Amino acid sequence: MSALSLIATGVTKEFNRRTIFRDVSISLSRGESLAITGRNGSGKSTLVKVVAGLLSATRGKVEYAVDGIRLDVEDLRHHIGFVSPYLQLYDEFSGNENLELLSKIRSDVRIDAGRIQEVLETVGLWERRLDYVRTYSSGMKQRLKYAFAVLHRPSLLMLDEPTSNLDHDGIAMVKKIVDEQKKHGVLIVATNDAGEAGWCSANIELGKR
Amino acid sequence: MGRLSGTYALIRKDVHSELRTRYALNALLMFVVTAVATILFALRSDQPTSSVLSGLYWVVVFFTAMSGLSRTFVSEEERGTTMTLQLVASPSTVYFAKLLFNTVLTFSMTIAVTILYMTVFSNAFVIKTFSIFAGTVVLGSLGFASASTIIAAIVAKANTRGTLYPVLSFPILIVLLMTVMNATTKSLDGEEFYSALPDFQILIGYFLAMTGGSYLLFEYVWKD
Amino acid sequence: MKFAKYGSITLITFVLFAGISIPLSPTPQNWLQFPVIPGLEEKARNILYHVPVAWTAVVAFLVSMYYGFRYLKTRDIDYDIKSVSAAGLGFLFCFLATITGALWAKFNWGSFWNWDPRETSIFVLLLIYGAYFALRSALETEEKRAALSAVYSMIAGITVPFFIFVMPRIMSGLHPGAKGDSEGAGPVVQMKMSPNMLVIFLLGLLGFTLLFIWLLNVRVRLARIEYERSTHHE
Predict the structure, then answer these.
(1) Residue C184 DSSP symbol
(2) Count of H-run helices and E-run strands, chain A
(3) Three-class SS of residue C75?
(4) Domain ranges in chain C?
(5) From the list A82, A90, A107, which residue is nearest B2 (CB)?
(6) Is there a contact between A171 and A201 (Cβ–Cβ < 8 Å)?
């Protein structure tokens, strides 16, 4: 993982003339973690998407740097891992194929079969890797999302509702990944759960104005 | 280099997905057969002129394109995998991959229609100047795919996808349609190759302008 | 804006009056007589109305495209308001151009519609406008609606040069300037109109352009007020 830092300044998001959130500022560098909390509908997922470069901000900007050098949004994809309830993987392909294909589309370097195996074993899907994703339970799909998110060792890991659909073992798996990420990279967690928010050193609460 | 391999990988993903589910291929093939059969019944034993046949040829291609070429974006949107693609690929990678996929699809369609027409209208549909016909089909497919891809990207973000696609595509494609029909008639009439040069100029210009414009504008459609 | 408003009313009224009342004569003696154009005679008067209206329809489209482009660059919704207002006017002018064209075609060439390149062009412009509004009504988010319709108008704009310049050269048609016409681009482009007719024609062109500017201004002001009202009712 490289040393990634991100700075969000005065980020505002409006949709159809409704303000979702206003003037949010964030500053994070390697080893730091942030929890985004707030009631349902307060815009947590939207803020996460804006920071991930998936949505454009109505006002304000988000800037990234890796090892001190400014990073274009174009290249952000190599450095970011993302888990979200809204994320879908290709259910006509197997878990293994999904990881291979997506990695190739992203043109990752140094991702080979060995790394894919390592990641699938970490998330506990090695046995079911050849089954089509449409046969996966929701918990298995969540695990596969984690595999997809950490496959390329991203410097920035963003988790929206980290433990949804996961059983006890799954939650332990997430904790391991979270601890690893906090050591070497940047972590952002969006959640309603106080326990999960507690994984992070800093906190932003949305919807309180 | 990374861009090219990413584009190639996305095309492979689309092709594999298509081979696995066989949605588009089956539907399109059936559509072509049904359309040609309908025309056959309508004409009965009448021998259509070369300009009528050429027009009918491209009408079938147009409607087949309308039923098939939007899938490449609409299916991503419907299955919720747009976000996934946005996470792994840059907009230009996505654009070129979808464009090339659609080009191959369109080209296959024109081949299918050609074979059917040569079988069904064996007396009237005789390609006398093959060079014009080949050039028209290649350039026409490129132009069709180029226009249809950007419109497909636009339609995927809207609500009433099915009917909206032909409504948006037709005005854009009229220039292309008129030109390819014109050139195809010439090929059926056995005219000299050079007589179709002005048509080819238009087709090449159309393809370049449409692809260039789409490439520049794609990001505004793809990214939210 | 006052200039546009009163200017357009004055000019169009003048052109309307002059265009209809100035008599034709085979050998025009002075400024108050139009020459006879063989084949057209009285019907030539339509040139003073049909062409400016068609011209304004195209101008409106270009204006709409421009504002759409500005929206994409700045994401300022005001540009979208201007773009859609221009498009609405363009749609109207285009519709009028098609009608006046069809009427002229009936009287000149015998039938209302013939699919010659210029006729097809104005029809395609009508379809583009229709598609533009169909697209807008299918998009719910204001931001998406503005962005996507801007992109569509620009994509459609790319095909417009192909129409206006290329098709008439390639296909023969009824309009002046098509392949079979030895006269070239016709009386308008060739500036073959007699000076007095030309002056009135240019005044008509100016008048309709001013009309467009004025109406656009009114529509945009109205749309802005409606926008403010709906925001404050949240």
Answers:
(1) -
(2) 6, 9
(3) coil
(4) 2-18+45-232
(5) A107
(6) no
Is the CB of A17 less than 8 angstroms away from the CB of C143?
no
* Distance from C-alpha of B179 to C-alpha of C169, rounded to nearest angstrom: 12
Nearest-CA distance from B124 to chain C in Å?
A: 24
Reported pTM: 0.89
The 3-state DSSP class for residue C110 equals: coil
C-beta neighbour count of B175 within 10 angstroms: 27
Task: Select from A15, A17, A58 the Cβ nearest to the Cβ of C231.
Answer: A17
As a three-state string, the secondary structure of A131-197 is: CEHHHCCHHHHHHHHHHHHHCCCCCEEEEECCCCCCCHHHHHHHHHHHHHHHHHCEEEEECCCHHHH
Helices (H), B22-70: 23-43, 50-68
Task: Give partners of B (≥3 CB pairs < 8 A).
Answer: A, C
Question: Using an 8 Å Cβ cutoff, are C57 and C129 in contact?
Answer: no
pLDDT tens column, C186-231? 444 444 566 777 777 788 888 888 888 888 988 999 999 988 888 7
Cα torsion angle, B53, B58, B62, B65, sign: positive
Could you write out the DSSP letters of every residue in C120-148? HHHHHHHHHHHHHHHHHHT--SHHHHHHH
Element (H, E) at C169: helix C167-170
* Interstrand relation of A69-71 and A59-66 (parallel, antiparallel or unpaired): antiparallel
- pLDDT tens digits, chain A, 209 residues: what are they? 788 899 999 999 988 888 888 899 999 999 999 999 988 888 899 999 999 999 988 889 999 999 888 988 888 999 999 999 999 999 999 999 999 999 999 988 778 889 999 999 999 999 999 999 999 999 999 999 999 999 999 999 999 999 998 999 999 999 999 999 999 999 999 998 888 888 999 898 887 64
Strands A4-15 and A59-66: antiparallel
Q: Does A54 touch chain B (CB under 8 A)?
A: yes
Delineate the domains of chain A, giving CATH numbers in brackets.
Answer: 4-205 (3.40.50.300)
Q: How far is CA A102 from the centre of its chain?
A: 15
Split at pLDDT 50, 70, 90, the class of C105 is confident
Q: Using CB atoms, which residue from A86, A101, A106 is nearest to B83?
A: A86
The residue behind tokens 């370097």 is: A109
- The answer to whether the Cβ–Cβ distance between C140 and A16 falls below 8 Å is yes
- Token pair, residue B178, equals 């008129």
Contacts of A92 in chain B (CB under 8 A): 17, 20-21
Q: Which two tokens stand for residue B27?
A: 């539907």
Q: Touching check for C167 and chain B: CB below 8 Å? A: yes
Look up the ipTM and state it: 0.91
Q: Is some CB atom of chain A closer than 8 A to the CB atom of B19?
A: no
Determine contact: B22 vs chain A, CB below 8 A. no
Inform me whether the C-beta atom of residue C228 falls under 8 Å from chain A C-beta atoms.
Answer: no
Residues of B in contact with A56 (CB under 8 A): 223-224
Residue C80 three-state SS: helix
Q: Chain C residues with CB inside 8 Å of A16's CB?
A: 140-143
